[in-house]
Amino acid sequence: MRENGWAPVRAEQQSVRTEARRGFQKHLIRFARAEQLDSWEKNQVRPEVVLLNSHDKSSAYQLHCGLFRLVCSNGMVVADGSFQRISIKHSGFNPDSVIDASFKVLSAVPDIMNKVRLFQDRVLTDAERLALATGAATYRWEDPNKAPVSPSMLLESRRFGDGAKDLWTTLNTLQENLVRGGQRDHSRRGPDGSRMHKSRAIKGIDEDLRLNKALWHMAEVLRTQGI
Fold this sequence. Notes:
By secondary structure, the chain is an alpha+beta fold. Helices cover 37% and strands 19% of the residues. It is built from five helices and six strands; from the N terminus they run E-E-H-E-E-E-E-H-H-H-H. Strand 4 (61-69) and strand 5 (74-77) form a beta hairpin.
């Protein structure tokens, strides 16, 4: 990947519950174009290749299209409806196939960035923002009424400048709050009347990918159909 202009910018691997699995778990590496690393401005959105693989060959190589926003350091993954992931089997594996796939992701970037601009241009009503947050909470916890935080709290920005009501900013706010967790809703109580715990951060690679793709899909539906 380096020889073809890609630079690794983030790497993580799945945590293990048993020592026997250590060294064989899934891992994820995000790559950006090397020429973008020095010229990239703070408020820009950087396209990335997201490579998912497993050490024990239990899953195929998967390449997804990712987006990275520096201001909140959160990495999004584009839904399969916008960019179909590319899977490469380990059997008869040829490294060139990964390189070829990475440039297929790159070729899709203009269309993906155009969708980002459409998200930025789509200003949401308060009802639409709450509907998107409720859908996100339902996906995350199944029953929003039993979730540790209310959907409206998921819309609270973590920094100045993220209070805009366009679809892109709202999507980023929801994604960051869900992935990072750490929010506490003092108005919520458990079945026994005790205070609810803070929302839990998402640490699993598969769970993170699924959530990101689900949020992107919800945003696409809201942009085109509304509520």
